């Protein structure tokens, strides 16, 4: 079947053997915690997907990355969610490096070569906050930097090698500036607490990470020249763009897995495939359009609105398509296997990530009227 062939070819090119490794496991086994999918992702070299080639990574473009994420989501929804946060962390570190002294290059190289998993402690668009606004505090104590705070939910919480977090750090000149901290997962003072209470997407390991007086060598903190109360639009827009396109592609992959099962069901070869196929394919084309634009156009509010439009269109496509697929699969499929209802439930999770469509109604209206875009 040609459905998803392009995405799986991209996955094989960047992470050889991962698709086959995931396909060998039942869906329920992949979606539990701990999941064998996370080890398979690491073994296939997945952590280096967005690390630049100059830093020993794969250097995937946005277009290549979204295709990879759709393929991952079609095999293991939890892995798609977890790795979106890893890739988002890497992209954030790359962008922050444009405002720093260059130390981030060494860190990125270590992540790629050692296949380290990086969890995200960024704000991820928390209501009323900039996506990179610090919610983990940092203070200098002698020759160390001490961190306090928590992140919940935090995907990859139990498998991470590093936790990235935006922090506000006061320099020797007394000015508070944004910095990106890379925190080894085994640092004293880090505690993982249960948080995720549903079996849906449990394999993403989205529990709470608590930091209590975690001490860091200053070399593990990448400073920028950006004051903490004035995060530039470039960092903000870049963070949201990567977050939205990667996340949307992964969830479209989950819906696509249900489409694939519907198209391949007994007797399904005689059906009109469009009720199951068209909406998710169109939504993915919209995501790809934004990803292509990220390579050629300025990263600004206009492009971010296009990314949000693609994401909200995908939400509608997922809801419509999963209903049609479950109806076509029928009651016996529902009784005989939990896979269909699980995929439908997991794919709906896109609606719960920030920024919610309902909170963006006024900001989008203001943008259309010529005012700067705000993230609600």
From TrEMBL:
<dbReference type="InterPro" id="IPR046373">
    <property type="entry name" value="Acyl-CoA_Oxase/DH_mid-dom_sf"/>
</dbReference>
<keyword id="KW-0285">Flavoprotein</keyword>
<dbReference type="InterPro" id="IPR037069">
    <property type="entry name" value="AcylCoA_DH/ox_N_sf"/>
</dbReference>
<dbReference type="InterPro" id="IPR009100">
    <property type="entry name" value="AcylCoA_DH/oxidase_NM_dom_sf"/>
</dbReference>
<protein>
    <submittedName>
        <fullName>Acyl-CoA dehydrogenase family protein</fullName>
    </submittedName>
</protein>
<keyword id="KW-0560">Oxidoreductase</keyword>
<keyword id="KW-0274">FAD</keyword>
């Amino acid at each position: 079947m040609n459905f998803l062939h392009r995405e799986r070819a991209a996955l094989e090119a960047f992470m050889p053997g991962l698709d086959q490794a995931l396909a060998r496991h039942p869906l329920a086994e992949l979606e539990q915690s701990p999941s064998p999918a996370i080890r398979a992702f690491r073994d296939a070299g997945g952590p280096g997907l967005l690390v630049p080639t100059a830093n020993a990574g794969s250097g995937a473009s946005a277009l290549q990355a979204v295709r990879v994420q759709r393929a991952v989501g079609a095999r293991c929804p939890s892995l798609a969610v977890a790795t979106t946060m890893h890739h988002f962390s890497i992209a954030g570190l790359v962008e922050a490096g444009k405002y720093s002294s260059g130390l981030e290059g060494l860190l990125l190289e270590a992540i790629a070569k050692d296949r380290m998993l990086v969890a995200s402690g960024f704000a991820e668009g928390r209501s009323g906050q900039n996506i990179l606004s610090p919610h983990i505090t940092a203070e200098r104590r002698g020759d160390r930097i001490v961190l306090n705070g928590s992140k919940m939910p935090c995907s990859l919480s139990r498998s991470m090698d590093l936790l990235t977090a935006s922090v506000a750090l006061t320099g020797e000149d007394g000015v508070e500036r944004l910095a990106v901290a890379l925190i080894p997962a085994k640092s004293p003072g880090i505690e993982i607490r249960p948080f995720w209470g549903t079996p849906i997407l449990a394999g993403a390991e989205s529990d709470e990470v608590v930091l209590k007086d975690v001490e860091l060598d200053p070399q593990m903190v990448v400073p920028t020249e950006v004051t903490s109360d004035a995060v530039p639009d470039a960092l903000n827009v870049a963070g949201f763009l990567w977050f939205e396109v990667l996340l949307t592609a992964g969830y479209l992959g989950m819906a696509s897995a249900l489409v694939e099962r519907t198209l391949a069901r007994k007797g399904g070869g005689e059906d009109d495939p469009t009720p199951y196929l068209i909406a998710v394919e169109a939504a993915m084309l919209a995501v790809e359009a934004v990803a292509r634009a990220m390579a050629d156009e300025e990263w600004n509010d206009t492009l971010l609105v296009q990314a949000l439009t693609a994401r909200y269109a995908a939400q509608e496509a997922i809801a419509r398509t999963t209903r049609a697929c479950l109806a076509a699969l029928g009651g016996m499929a529902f009784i005989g296997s939990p896979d269909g209802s699980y995929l439908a439930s997991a794919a709906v999770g896109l609606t719960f990530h920030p920024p919610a469509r309902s909170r963006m109604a006024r900001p989008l209206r203001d943008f259309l009227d010529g005012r700067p875009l705000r993230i609600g």
